[in-house]
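Support case: user asked for a sample of complex input and structure output to validate their parser. Sending the pair below.
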Amino acid sequence: MRRTHFTEMNCSVAQTLEIVGEWWTLLIVRDALFGVTRFDDFQNRLGIARNILTLRLETLVDHGVMVKDQYQDKPIRYDYRLTKRGKDLWMVIAAMRQWGDIWLADGGPPLEFVHRTCGCSMTIQPVCSACAHVVDRESLSSIPGPGASREDLPPGPSR
Amino acid sequence: MRRTHFTEMNCSVAQTLEIVGEWWTLLIVRDALFGVTRFDDFQNRLGIARNILTLRLETLVDHGVMVKDQYQDKPIRYDYRLTKRGKDLWMVIAAMRQWGDIWLADGGPPLEFVHRTCGCSMTIQPVCSACAHVVDRESLSSIPGPGASREDLPPGPSR
Protein backbone atom coordinates (compact mmCIF):
# COMPACT_ATOMS: atom_id res chain seq x y z
CA MET A 1 0.00 0.00 0.00
CA ARG A 2 2.50 2.59 1.14
CA ARG A 3 5.07 1.88 -1.56
CA THR A 4 2.50 1.96 -4.32
CA HIS A 5 1.38 5.32 -3.12
CA PHE A 6 4.90 6.74 -3.15
CA THR A 7 5.52 5.57 -6.68
CA GLU A 8 2.34 7.24 -7.83
CA MET A 9 3.28 10.64 -6.44
CA ASN A 10 4.49 12.91 -9.22
CA CYS A 11 7.18 14.51 -7.06
CA SER A 12 10.93 14.09 -7.26
CA VAL A 13 11.25 14.18 -3.47
CA ALA A 14 8.82 11.27 -3.13
CA GLN A 15 10.48 9.34 -5.95
CA THR A 16 13.86 9.81 -4.32
CA LEU A 17 12.53 8.68 -0.94
CA GLU A 18 11.14 5.61 -2.66
CA ILE A 19 14.73 4.56 -3.31
CA VAL A 20 16.75 6.05 -0.47
CA GLY A 21 14.16 6.88 2.21
CA GLU A 22 14.96 3.95 4.41
CA TRP A 23 17.39 4.86 7.17
CA TRP A 24 20.00 2.22 6.47
CA THR A 25 20.04 2.92 2.78
CA LEU A 26 21.45 6.43 3.16
CA LEU A 27 24.00 5.25 5.72
CA ILE A 28 25.14 2.57 3.27
CA VAL A 29 25.55 5.28 0.63
CA ARG A 30 27.36 7.47 3.18
CA ASP A 31 29.88 4.70 3.86
CA ALA A 32 30.21 3.87 0.16
CA LEU A 33 31.10 7.53 -0.46
CA PHE A 34 33.90 7.06 2.09
CA GLY A 35 35.24 4.11 0.10
CA VAL A 36 33.62 1.10 1.77
CA THR A 37 32.87 -1.62 -0.80
CA ARG A 38 32.71 -4.98 0.99
CA PHE A 39 29.64 -6.54 2.54
CA ASP A 40 31.45 -7.38 5.79
CA ASP A 41 32.84 -3.87 6.08
CA PHE A 42 29.38 -2.33 5.69
CA GLN A 43 28.07 -4.83 8.19
CA ASN A 44 30.78 -4.16 10.76
CA ARG A 45 30.57 -0.39 10.46
CA LEU A 46 26.78 -0.18 10.58
CA GLY A 47 25.99 -3.05 12.94
CA ILE A 48 23.10 -3.91 10.65
CA ALA A 49 21.58 -7.40 10.45
CA ARG A 50 23.03 -9.32 7.49
CA ASN A 51 19.65 -10.09 5.92
CA ILE A 52 18.62 -6.44 6.06
CA LEU A 53 21.94 -5.33 4.60
CA THR A 54 21.55 -7.83 1.76
CA LEU A 55 18.08 -6.48 0.98
CA ARG A 56 19.20 -2.86 1.06
CA LEU A 57 22.23 -3.48 -1.16
CA GLU A 58 20.08 -5.38 -3.66
CA THR A 59 17.60 -2.49 -3.76
CA LEU A 60 20.44 -0.08 -4.46
CA VAL A 61 21.75 -2.33 -7.24
CA ASP A 62 18.24 -2.76 -8.69
CA HIS A 63 17.82 1.01 -8.89
CA GLY A 64 21.21 1.63 -10.47
CA VAL A 65 22.67 3.37 -7.41
CA MET A 66 25.33 0.66 -6.93
CA VAL A 67 26.85 -2.10 -9.03
CA LYS A 68 28.18 -5.34 -7.63
CA ASP A 69 31.30 -7.15 -8.84
CA GLN A 70 32.27 -10.62 -7.77
CA TYR A 71 35.79 -10.57 -6.33
CA GLN A 72 35.95 -14.11 -4.90
CA ASP A 73 34.78 -17.58 -5.97
CA LYS A 74 34.60 -19.74 -2.87
CA PRO A 75 32.64 -18.53 -1.10
CA ILE A 76 31.20 -16.07 -3.60
CA ARG A 77 31.84 -12.49 -2.47
CA TYR A 78 30.95 -9.18 -4.04
CA ASP A 79 32.23 -5.64 -4.02
CA TYR A 80 29.55 -2.95 -4.06
CA ARG A 81 30.43 0.34 -5.71
CA LEU A 82 28.46 3.51 -6.33
CA THR A 83 27.52 4.35 -9.90
CA LYS A 84 27.48 7.94 -11.19
CA ARG A 85 23.87 8.06 -10.04
CA GLY A 86 24.92 6.85 -6.61
CA LYS A 87 27.87 9.22 -6.23
CA ASP A 88 25.52 12.03 -7.14
CA LEU A 89 23.71 11.45 -3.84
CA TRP A 90 26.60 13.16 -2.03
CA MET A 91 24.67 16.45 -1.93
CA VAL A 92 21.75 14.78 -0.14
CA ILE A 93 24.13 13.30 2.43
CA ALA A 94 26.01 16.60 2.72
CA ALA A 95 22.78 18.54 3.32
CA MET A 96 21.75 16.07 6.02
CA ARG A 97 25.17 16.24 7.62
CA GLN A 98 25.13 20.03 7.74
CA TRP A 99 21.67 20.10 9.27
CA GLY A 100 22.73 17.58 11.90
CA ASP A 101 25.96 19.49 12.58
CA ILE A 102 24.01 22.68 13.23
CA TRP A 103 21.00 21.36 15.10
CA LEU A 104 21.99 18.08 16.74
CA ALA A 105 25.76 17.91 17.28
CA ASP A 106 26.09 19.23 20.82
CA GLY A 107 29.79 18.45 20.95
CA GLY A 108 30.46 20.06 17.58
CA PRO A 109 30.59 18.39 14.16
CA PRO A 110 32.09 14.88 14.31
CA LEU A 111 33.52 15.50 10.83
CA GLU A 112 34.67 18.58 9.05
CA PHE A 113 35.26 19.03 5.34
CA VAL A 114 38.22 20.64 3.66
CA HIS A 115 37.98 22.06 0.17
CA ARG A 116 41.14 20.76 -1.50
CA THR A 117 41.28 23.61 -3.98
CA CYS A 118 41.54 26.36 -1.36
CA GLY A 119 42.66 24.29 1.62
CA CYS A 120 40.00 25.70 3.94
CA SER A 121 37.67 23.98 6.33
CA MET A 122 34.25 24.78 4.85
CA THR A 123 30.56 24.16 4.61
CA ILE A 124 28.49 23.97 1.47
CA GLN A 125 26.64 27.13 0.52
CA PRO A 126 23.75 26.95 -1.92
CA VAL A 127 23.92 29.46 -4.76
CA CYS A 128 21.66 30.13 -7.74
CA SER A 129 22.83 28.36 -10.91
CA ALA A 130 21.73 31.41 -12.92
CA CYS A 131 23.09 34.41 -10.99
CA ALA A 132 25.53 32.72 -8.57
CA HIS A 133 24.18 34.58 -5.55
CA VAL A 134 23.58 32.72 -2.29
CA VAL A 135 19.99 31.51 -2.06
CA ASP A 136 17.80 30.65 0.89
CA ARG A 137 14.35 29.20 1.08
CA GLU A 138 12.61 32.56 1.12
CA SER A 139 14.21 33.67 -2.13
CA LEU A 140 12.78 30.75 -4.13
CA SER A 141 9.35 30.24 -5.68
CA SER A 142 8.17 27.01 -7.24
CA ILE A 143 6.37 26.81 -10.57
CA PRO A 144 5.06 23.82 -12.54
CA GLY A 145 7.83 22.11 -14.48
CA PRO A 146 7.66 20.11 -17.72
CA GLY A 147 6.72 16.96 -15.79
CA ALA A 148 3.92 18.61 -13.78
CA SER A 149 0.47 17.14 -13.43
CA ARG A 150 -2.30 19.31 -12.06
CA GLU A 151 -3.15 17.29 -8.97
CA ASP A 152 0.40 17.14 -7.70
CA LEU A 153 1.17 20.82 -7.55
CA PRO A 154 1.97 22.29 -4.17
CA PRO A 155 -0.63 24.42 -2.45
CA GLY A 156 -0.36 27.79 -0.86
CA PRO A 157 1.78 30.88 -1.05
CA SER A 158 5.00 29.25 -2.21
CA ARG A 159 3.34 27.96 -5.33
CA MET B 1 17.56 -2.18 18.72
CA ARG B 2 17.80 -0.24 15.50
CA ARG B 3 16.88 3.12 16.97
CA THR B 4 19.25 2.72 19.87
CA HIS B 5 22.01 1.98 17.47
CA PHE B 6 21.31 5.09 15.41
CA THR B 7 21.35 7.35 18.44
CA GLU B 8 24.69 5.93 19.47
CA MET B 9 26.36 6.69 16.15
CA ASN B 10 28.51 9.79 16.44
CA CYS B 11 27.61 11.04 12.97
CA SER B 12 25.44 13.97 11.99
CA VAL B 13 23.98 12.05 9.06
CA ALA B 14 22.82 9.25 11.37
CA GLN B 15 21.50 11.71 13.94
CA THR B 16 19.53 13.51 11.26
CA LEU B 17 18.11 10.26 9.92
CA GLU B 18 17.04 9.40 13.45
CA ILE B 19 14.63 12.34 13.23
CA VAL B 20 13.73 12.62 9.56
CA GLY B 21 14.74 9.27 8.08
CA GLU B 22 11.25 7.89 7.86
CA TRP B 23 9.71 8.41 4.43
CA TRP B 24 6.58 10.20 5.53
CA THR B 25 8.44 12.54 7.81
CA LEU B 26 10.30 14.27 5.00
CA LEU B 27 7.16 14.50 2.88
CA ILE B 28 5.38 16.15 5.81
CA VAL B 29 8.24 18.65 6.02
CA ARG B 30 8.09 19.11 2.22
CA ASP B 31 4.40 20.02 2.43
CA ALA B 32 4.92 22.21 5.48
CA LEU B 33 7.53 24.15 3.50
CA PHE B 34 4.80 24.73 0.90
CA GLY B 35 2.56 26.23 3.58
CA VAL B 36 0.42 23.27 4.70
CA THR B 37 -0.38 23.51 8.42
CA ARG B 38 -3.56 21.53 9.13
CA PHE B 39 -3.77 17.87 10.00
CA ASP B 40 -6.52 17.21 7.47
CA ASP B 41 -4.60 18.97 4.71
CA PHE B 42 -1.49 16.87 5.36
CA GLN B 43 -3.68 13.81 5.45
CA ASN B 44 -5.48 14.59 2.20
CA ARG B 45 -2.33 15.51 0.32
CA LEU B 46 -0.27 12.54 1.49
CA GLY B 47 -2.95 9.87 1.69
CA ILE B 48 -1.30 8.74 4.91
CA ALA B 49 -3.16 6.82 7.64
CA ARG B 50 -4.32 9.20 10.38
CA ASN B 51 -2.64 7.29 13.20
CA ILE B 52 0.70 7.28 11.35
CA LEU B 53 0.38 10.99 10.57
CA THR B 54 -0.33 11.72 14.24
CA LEU B 55 2.78 9.81 15.28
CA ARG B 56 5.01 11.50 12.71
CA LEU B 57 3.77 15.00 13.61
CA GLU B 58 4.30 14.31 17.31
CA THR B 59 7.85 13.13 16.62
CA LEU B 60 8.53 16.33 14.69
CA VAL B 61 7.11 18.41 17.55
CA ASP B 62 9.11 16.42 20.13
CA HIS B 63 12.32 17.13 18.24
CA GLY B 64 11.65 20.83 17.80
CA VAL B 65 11.15 20.61 14.04
CA MET B 66 7.51 21.76 14.29
CA VAL B 67 5.34 23.49 16.87
CA LYS B 68 1.64 22.94 17.26
CA ASP B 69 -0.93 25.62 18.06
CA GLN B 70 -4.51 24.94 18.96
CA TYR B 71 -6.80 26.85 16.59
CA GLN B 72 -10.15 25.30 17.55
CA ASP B 73 -11.87 24.18 20.77
CA LYS B 74 -14.58 21.71 19.83
CA PRO B 75 -13.28 19.47 18.56
CA ILE B 76 -9.72 20.37 19.47
CA ARG B 77 -7.68 21.06 16.34
CA TYR B 78 -4.07 22.07 15.86
CA ASP B 79 -1.98 23.91 13.32
CA TYR B 80 1.48 22.50 12.76
CA ARG B 81 4.19 24.93 11.74
CA LEU B 82 7.89 24.53 11.06
CA THR B 83 10.33 26.08 13.52
CA LYS B 84 13.62 27.65 12.39
CA ARG B 85 15.13 24.20 12.80
CA GLY B 86 12.42 22.73 10.61
CA LYS B 87 12.61 25.39 7.90
CA ASP B 88 16.33 24.76 7.77
CA LEU B 89 15.60 21.28 6.37
CA TRP B 90 14.79 22.90 3.01
CA MET B 91 18.31 22.15 1.74
CA VAL B 92 17.85 18.43 2.47
CA ILE B 93 14.56 18.43 0.57
CA ALA B 94 16.05 20.53 -2.23
CA ALA B 95 19.00 18.14 -2.62
CA MET B 96 16.61 15.17 -2.78
CA ARG B 97 14.42 16.96 -5.30
CA GLN B 98 17.35 17.77 -7.56
CA TRP B 99 18.62 14.20 -7.47
CA GLY B 100 15.15 12.91 -8.31
CA ASP B 101 14.74 15.49 -11.08
CA ILE B 102 18.00 14.36 -12.70
CA TRP B 103 17.82 10.61 -12.22
CA LEU B 104 14.16 9.65 -11.86
CA ALA B 105 11.91 12.23 -13.52
CA ASP B 106 11.48 10.76 -17.00
CA GLY B 107 8.93 13.40 -17.98
CA GLY B 108 11.08 16.24 -16.70
CA PRO B 109 10.95 17.92 -13.28
CA PRO B 110 7.39 18.16 -11.89
CA LEU B 111 8.40 21.44 -10.23
CA GLU B 112 10.88 24.11 -11.14
CA PHE B 113 12.27 26.81 -8.90
CA VAL B 114 12.62 30.48 -9.67
CA HIS B 115 15.11 32.67 -7.86
CA ARG B 116 13.08 35.76 -7.03
CA THR B 117 16.13 38.01 -6.92
CA CYS B 118 17.20 37.35 -10.52
CA GLY B 119 13.93 36.01 -11.90
CA CYS B 120 15.55 32.95 -13.45
CA SER B 121 14.54 29.31 -13.35
CA MET B 122 17.44 27.71 -11.50
CA THR B 123 18.95 24.83 -9.63
CA ILE B 124 20.99 24.97 -6.47
CA GLN B 125 24.74 24.85 -6.92
CA PRO B 126 26.97 23.97 -4.00
CA VAL B 127 29.87 26.34 -3.44
CA CYS B 128 32.62 26.48 -0.82
CA SER B 129 31.80 28.79 2.09
CA ALA B 130 35.45 29.84 2.20
CA CYS B 131 36.41 30.51 -1.44
CA ALA B 132 32.96 30.59 -3.12
CA HIS B 133 34.00 28.24 -5.92
CA VAL B 134 31.68 25.45 -7.01
CA VAL B 135 32.49 22.22 -5.17
CA ASP B 136 31.88 18.61 -6.04
CA ARG B 137 32.43 15.45 -4.09
CA GLU B 138 35.93 14.88 -5.42
CA SER B 139 37.16 18.29 -4.26
CA LEU B 140 36.34 17.63 -0.61
CA SER B 141 38.25 15.72 2.07
CA SER B 142 36.91 14.94 5.51
CA ILE B 143 38.88 15.41 8.71
CA PRO B 144 37.94 14.82 12.36
CA GLY B 145 35.88 17.67 13.75
CA PRO B 146 35.58 18.94 17.35
CA GLY B 147 32.92 16.32 18.09
CA ALA B 148 34.90 13.38 16.69
CA SER B 149 35.38 10.13 18.55
CA ARG B 150 38.01 7.70 17.30
CA GLU B 151 35.75 4.75 16.53
CA ASP B 152 33.35 6.74 14.39
CA LEU B 153 35.76 8.15 11.86
CA PRO B 154 35.26 7.18 8.24
CA PRO B 155 37.63 4.68 6.69
CA GLY B 156 39.51 4.80 3.48
CA PRO B 157 40.91 7.30 1.04
CA SER B 158 38.41 10.08 1.63
CA ARG B 159 39.44 10.35 5.26
